[in-house]
Design a protein that fits this description.
Length: about 500
């Protein structure tokens, strides 16, 4: 019996997505011909960051070049047209595909006659195992900490015995929240691995230029050189660079921000992980090895493993567990559209140094680390009452590592509290004092973090109190928010503050 063709999506680019399953059931047929489809309609439907469009197409074309004659690489207007060209499905040839990473893609492949959907790859925990774990939770509470510990146990990560975490603690978060050192512009960490472009990158750039010139597509952000891995070999080089030279300094300042140090000690590996170029097993086992051989301290190693084996897995499974309707959650009733200056990455229109600096970095690279995303970009959106579906879509389009499964839980649940607390126990927003403590943004800013009203009033400080007042009734019953809500009654300038924030409206802060 001839091997069935196997479809690879553009975020299923690692060798593990084409590997035959051990039992013949959970992977492609042995020697299966591979099919990849480059769909122009994907870029035409939405305005993506130019760096993201370039990276994804470069990675797909690099993978096709590696696979050679084994792959049929189809350039088509739509996926459906591409399948017809490849003579897959619809009564032509039965085929297989690994479980895609979005509800829309899953619905699509399930609707292709003769297409068999195989189990997901690229994650540590299977859908069935997560379903069993979730079903065992008393009261239905799906706490990330509980999930993370079980992943550690099941995969024997950082354990000295089944229920004995290395170092005697499961969680080193308390050690990993240090502000940046005073009076430094950078952490001085060794530089991360950064890409060098080749002829495939040149070809992609030429195509994007032509399509944009012809009015077929449009983009956000700058057309800078490719920074992130586009091949498995590059991804493994980036992983080794992080593990050998940067992991040791990662933990303590993983929540800190410096205006002139965008990378700090972060891994930048969410990009190749989400393209499927790296298997998370490589990342977490490599990090543990550095702890075991004494080359990286436990708090840094645990902090990184928590990001990959904890948060990343948790977000992936909540995306499927909550279902497609979750993206429509809007418990706070936020309806305002994104202002043009934010939507178009117009950092130069913004006075607040933190927000201007972060938007400028997104504009130039399509990436910032998790704290600027949550506590600067997301916090501004939440305080301003922007529609969470528009915010989610913007994060998806503007970030090189942004995919539907990534951004729906992270933005709807974590950043915008639009689910009313299904995912997190409180809204993640703050006044300028937090940004001042965790960054160097405030020193040269026109606003002051401790001023609520007036020309020097920090937009985040004033915005925080206005947000609490707007949702006072809902948040008063939240045990983690009751104290700040009660603090509203001690603000003698609250009426002036609310009038000021009403005047500011959608203007750039």
């Amino acid at each position: 019996m001839a091997a069935r063709p196997h479809l690879l999506f553009g975020d299923q680019l690692g060798a593990h997505f084409a590997r035959t399953g051990a039992d013949g059931q959970d992977g492609p047929d042995e020697d299966a011909p591979l099919v990849m489809i480059e769909s122009r309609a994907v870029l035409r439907r939405r305005t993506f960051h130019r760096a993201k469009a370039h990276l994804v197409l470069s990675a797909m074309r690099h993978r096709a070049a590696e696979l050679g004659d084994r792959v049929r690489y189809v350039r088509a207007d739509t996926y459906r047209e591409g399948l017809r060209t490849a003579r897959v499905g619809s009564g032509r040839r039965n085929a297989t595909v690994h479980h895609p990473t979005s509800h829309a893609a899953l619905d699509f492949v399930r609707g292709v006659p003769g297409m068999t959907v195989l189990p997901a790859r690229g994650f540590l925990v299977s859908h069935d195992d997560f379903a069993r774990w979730a079903g065992d939770r008393q009261g239905g509470a799906l706490r990330m900490e509980d999930f993370y510990r079980d992943v550690r146990r099941d995969h024997e990560l950082l354990l000295d015995g089944h229920d004995h975490p290395a170092g005697g603690r499961w969680n080193y978060d308390h050690d990993n929240r240090e502000p940046p050192p005073r009076d430094v512009r950078t952490l001085g960490a060794p530089a991360p691995w950064l890409a060098e472009e080749d002829e495939i990158d040149d070809e992609v750039r030429h195509d994007l230029d032509r399509w944009e010139r012809d009015g077929e597509v449009s983009f956000l952000g700058d057309d800078g050189p490719r920074l992130f891995p586009a091949t498995g070999e590059e991804a493994r080089a980036a992983l080794r660079r992080f593990l050998d030279h940067r992991l040791g300094g990662f933990g303590a300042h993983e929540d800190a921000m410096l205006a002139k140090d965008p990378w700090m000690s972060h891994s930048l590996l969410s990009v190749p992980l989400n393209l499927g170029l790296l298997d998370p097993v490589e990342c977490v086992e490599g990090a543990e090895k550095r702890y075991r051989d004494g080359s990286a301290p436990l708090p840094s190693v645990e902090g990184y493993i928590r990001q990959v084996a904890g948060w990343r897995e948790y977000v992936w499974h909540l995306y499927w567990h909550f279902g497609d309707d979750y993206r429509r959650s809007n418990k706070l009733g936020h309806r305002r559209g994104l202002p043009d200056w934010f939507a178009e990455l117009d950092a130069d229109a913004v006075t607040a140094r933190c927000l201007s600096s972060v938007l400028a970095q997104v504009r130039s690279t399509g990436w910032v680390h998790h704290i600027p995303r949550l506590m600067v970009l997301g916090s501004r959106a939440l305080q301003s009452g922007w529609n969470p579906r528009e915010v989610t879509d913007w994060f998806h389009r503007a970030f090189v590592d942004g995919y539907d499964w990534v951004m729906v839980p992270n933005v709807v649940g974590m950043s915008q509290y639009a689910d009313g607390g299904r995912m997190t126990t409180k809204p993640y927003t703050s006044g300028g004092a937090y940004i001042n403590r965790m960054s160097d943004y405030c020193g040269e800013c026109a606003y002051r973090p401790d001023v609520r009203v007036g020309d020097r009033a920090c937009p985040f400080t004033a915005g925080y109190w206005a947000f609490l007042d707007r949702h006072r009734e809902r948040l008063a019953g939240n045990h983690r928010m009751s104290r700040p809500v009660a603090g509203l009654d001690r603000l003698k300038d609250l009426p002036e503050l609310l009038e000021q924030e009403q005047r500011r409206g959608a203007s750039p802060p």
